[in-house]
């Protein structure tokens, strides 16, 4: 946990010196310089304190709050811009400034007013700064799905915000001290206030009209290498944190199953709304499965990583069920359409899933296991103890060995020969999963026109799209979980690296696929949302994927293999 917090702090520190801060940097400098007096020496700290507070609060809770109120997700940013503009006007017009600072002057001595308004300025910057939170949002992606904020996520977000605050605070303090040191500026402080107010107001207008976007994207990505390295390390630490949750009861003892550790009692199946592939749809319990080796497999049907794992799980079930082995597939949905049981039932039949499937629509069993992603597997012995965990793809041979080990320890004899299912886990570094809906678009690398939530908008493709980044072109409405093409000819471009490229699509229509300007095929989309193959290559490749959509087609999520 300490290592994870350190990585979060470092991620914030890198963000604080990256092009992402360019829109707020003039405000930090002007806000710190505008009140360069002894009475307001704490103003830079108040500004950064307000930024950290609002960034942390609204990164964790803002999206859920607006969803609860039925408001568009960009209201937070708009509110921050309005406050920023008002503070700028307050600096330029002393009478308005007095009105804005009056609530803070009442809190105590007059000397605190500058710090109080500085805190409000920081709050507005925090709202504008939230979109910079790419690295920390990777840690809270599961929060969006499960609607829970744990201490680990809270501390990680605070660590990230504190890291980003350090260079910003340095800029603010330097600006204030520089202004104090220039006697000519001190004698013209009213003019300095007005100039600073003008900077704040103009910056608010520039951010509102997205004039800062070209500046951010044209500045060389001098932190890209650091961010990429940190992202990889960060993901490994998150996986380690997941294992820490699963193994918190680990015991160094050799019981049934030889050297396999006992990782704690397996949680019960909780909040399951329906069962598939059981006699009469009757529920299973771990108590009723006592005496058998059980594999609990968390999956969701549109996930390509899960789809590549399912043949191995089904093969184990088919091979060893007669020897006392049971699989329980816990289907915990990622997207709204995966909550529909008939869709899950059809997908299970399509993929040849014959073992019992528990419908965990409310994430109750997911939360009981402290699970963090798809696919995840928990191997449970005959006494109800977790003996092995696997997160993600791969490691199939080792998992099967442990299944056999536990079966033999329980007295099973004459086990058949092991399974022989091809391992399709990607061996090369591929483009990370890329979300299209605004709920998780921040987890992806996006370039181009600013994204407007829940509103028909004309987008422009980003020129010279960097590797692993995605961009919209044409008319789109970006919803929480997907984006809908609102006119034929709408486009998405993605600079990818992979053997295979998949996209979850819904609606009815067509998607024309091209790579580097060369047309590859047309995909016909119909029925319930599903995973479609866009590129299927016998070898690893990279290029600019260019997709053209007919009106009404919905795009959810890119995955790669």
Write up what this structure looks like.
- By secondary structure, the chain is an alpha+beta fold.
- The chain folds into 3 domains: 2-237, no CATH class; 247-409, Glutaredoxin, CATH 3.40.30; 434-560, Galactose-binding domain-like (Jelly Rolls, Sandwich), CATH 2.60.120.
- The protein is 43% helix and 20% strand.
- The protein is built from 17 helices and 16 strands.
- Strands 7, 8, 9, 10, 11, 12, 13, 14, 15 and 16 form a 10-stranded mixed β-sheet that branches. The protein has a 6-stranded mixed β-sheet with strand order 1-4-3-2-5-6, with helices on both faces.
- β10 and β11 (483-485) form a beta hairpin.
- α2 (25-33) crosses α9 and α3 runs antiparallel to α9.
- The longest helix is centred in the N-terminal third of the chain and has 31 residues, at 151-181.
- The protein is globular and about 90 Å long.
- Mean pLDDT is 77; it is low at 70-74, 104-114, 134-148 and 212-256.
Short description:
With 561 residues, the chain is of the alpha+beta class.
Kindly list the characteristics that best describe this protein:
6-stranded mixed sheet; 16 strands; Jelly Rolls; 3 domains; 10-stranded mixed sheet; alpha+beta; Glutaredoxin; 561 residues
Overall mean pLDDT stands at 77
Give the termini separation.
31 Å
Any low-confidence stretches, pLDDT <50, length ≥5? Answer: 70-74, 104-114, 134-148, 212-256
The helix/strand class is alpha+beta
Let me know the largest β-sheet: 10 strands, mixed
In total, the number of domains comes to 3
Beta strand %: 15-25%
**What is the number of beta strands?**
16
Number of helices: 17
Secondary structure: helix percent:
40-55%
Overall geometry: globular
Q: Return Rg in Å.
A: 27 Å
């Amino acid at each position: 946990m300490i290592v994870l917090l350190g990585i979060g702090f470092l991620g914030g520190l890198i963000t604080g010196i990256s092009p992402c801060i360019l829109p707020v940097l003039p405000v930090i400098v002007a806000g710190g310089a505008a009140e360069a007096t002894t009475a307001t020496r704490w103003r830079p700290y108040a500004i950064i304190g307000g930024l950290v507070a609002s960034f942390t609060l609204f990164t964790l809770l803002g999206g859920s709050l607006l969803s609860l109120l039925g408001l568009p997700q960009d209201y937070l940013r708009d509110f921050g811009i309005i406050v920023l503009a008002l503070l700028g006007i307050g600096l330029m017009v002393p009478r308005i400034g007095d009105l804005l600072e009056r609530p803070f002057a009442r809190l105590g001595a007059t000397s605190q007013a500058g710090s109080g308004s500085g805190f409000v300025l920081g709050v507005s910057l925090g709202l504008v700064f939230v979109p910079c939170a790419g690295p920390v949002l990777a840690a809270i992606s599961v929060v969006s799905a499960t609607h829970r904020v744990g201490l680990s996520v809270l501390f990680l977000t605070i660590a990230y915000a504190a890291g980003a605050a350090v260079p910003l605070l340095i800029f603010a303090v330097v600006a204030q001290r520089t202004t104090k040191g220039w006697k000519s500026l001190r004698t013209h402080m009213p003019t300095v206030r007005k100039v600073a107010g003008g900077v704040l107001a103009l910056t608010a207008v520039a951010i509102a009209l997205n004039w800062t976007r070209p500046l951010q994207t044209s500045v060389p990505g001098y932190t890209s290498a650091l961010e990429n390295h940190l992202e990889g390390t960060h993901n490994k630490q998150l996986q380690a944190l997941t294992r820490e949750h699963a193994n918190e009861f680990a015991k160094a003892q050799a019981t049934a199953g030889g050297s396999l550790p006992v990782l704690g009692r397996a949680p019960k199946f909780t909040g399951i709304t329906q069962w598939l592939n059981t006699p009469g749809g009757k529920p299973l319990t771990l108590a009723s499965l006592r005496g058998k080796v059980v594999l609990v497999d968390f999956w969701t049907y549109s996930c390509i990583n899960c789809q590549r794992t399912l043949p191995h799980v089904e093969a184990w079930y088919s091979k060893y069920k007669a020897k006392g082995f049971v699989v329980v597939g816990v289907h915990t949905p990622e997207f709204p359409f995966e909550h529909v049981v008939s869709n899950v039932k059809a997908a299970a039949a399509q993929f040849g899933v014959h073992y019992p499937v528990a419908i965990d629509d409310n994430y109750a069993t997911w939360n009981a296991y402290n699970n963090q992603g798809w696919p995840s597997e928990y191997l449970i012995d005959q006494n109800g103890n977790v003996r092995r965990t696997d997160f993600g793809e791969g490691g199939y041979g080792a998992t099967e060995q442990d299944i056999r080990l536990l079966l033999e320890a329980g007295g099973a004899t004459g086990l058949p020969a092991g399974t022989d299912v091809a391992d399709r886990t990607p061996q090369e570094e591929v483009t990370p999963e890329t979300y299209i809906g605004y709920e998780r678009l921040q987890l992806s690398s996006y370039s181009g026109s600013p994204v407007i939530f829940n509103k028909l908008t004309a987008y422009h493709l980003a020129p010279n799209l960097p590797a692993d980044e995605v961009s919209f072109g044409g008319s789109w409405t970006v919803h929480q979980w997907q984006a809908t093409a609102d006119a034929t000819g709408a486009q998405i471009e993605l600079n990818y690296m992979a053997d295979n490229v998949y996209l979850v699509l819904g609606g009815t229509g067509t998607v024309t696929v091209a790579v580097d300007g060369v047309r590859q095929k047309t995909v016909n989309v119909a029925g319930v949302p599903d995973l479609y193959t866009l590129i299927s290559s016998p070898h690893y490749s990279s290029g600019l994927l260019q997709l053209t959509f007919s009106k009404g087609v919905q795009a959810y999520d890119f995955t790669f293999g």
